């Protein structure tokens, strides 16, 4: 239920039940922090005079109320220990850790002889804003002017409002603007321009500065130098890699060529053949055994060898000298 509806129901109940409604104020509470609900000096005097007071808060509507604290002639009772604290010096109520469900209508009632008088407090709870961050959505450098689109956002907080201003006191600053988006145009040679974004809500306020350096001439010069170096060095590196690849292919091809020209067949081996010569003689008795003084048979030992030995190759045939034993038989006459 909204605050306006709660207030209307409160006023209606005052008229219906004839209760003195007194005055109402709004107190802002910060989520997670302590909140003090104070009592005006007039009500403090009445409490000391009549000695009876009660802290209550509305639940769902002003007619349903929850008792939080009672005070009677110096004695008091806390109905929410660990959540609230009562200060007898000024009769104020402290909420130790404010939560969203504490956003209610609170009532401080003083019982008098002729009736009671009330002090109403509407508590509004807000989450504090976090430090805002500035993002560059777009930028352009043209005609010696830099145009930047900035967006300021805060990650946490309720009911956040954004505003832009110059970090220095200036009435004609291009940074002055209300809203999260800022379209900023300035001279890129002006390095002293600084804008600040402020994110705020009823209980907190945070500011972040932005320095105009994105379009600076120095940054553009360094960017162009980097691009120039990239355009010169990269082609040279590519040429070196290609030349190295061609050199490697050429060396491998030359290493394979001698192997392909080496002999692989035994047809190129040169042999020497010795022919046998016979003469006609008269028949003689059979050959005497080997080792006698006058053998009747003559044995010729002929060696057939290669004229020249080719270089050794694992695939070439056996080229060792070959020995042929030839026996010449003389005819018997």
UniProtKB/TrEMBL annotation:
Residues 132-208 form the Ig-like domain. Keywords: Glycoprotein, Membrane, Signal, Transmembrane, Transmembrane helix. Residues 1-21 form the signal peptide. The chain crosses the membrane at residues 227-253. GO terms for cellular component: membrane. Its main location: membrane. PANTHER family: LYMPHOCYTE FUNCTION-ASSOCIATED ANTIGEN 3, SIGNALING LYMPHOCYTIC ACTIVATION MOLECULE. This is Signaling lymphocytic activation molecule family member 1. The gene is LOC107324463.
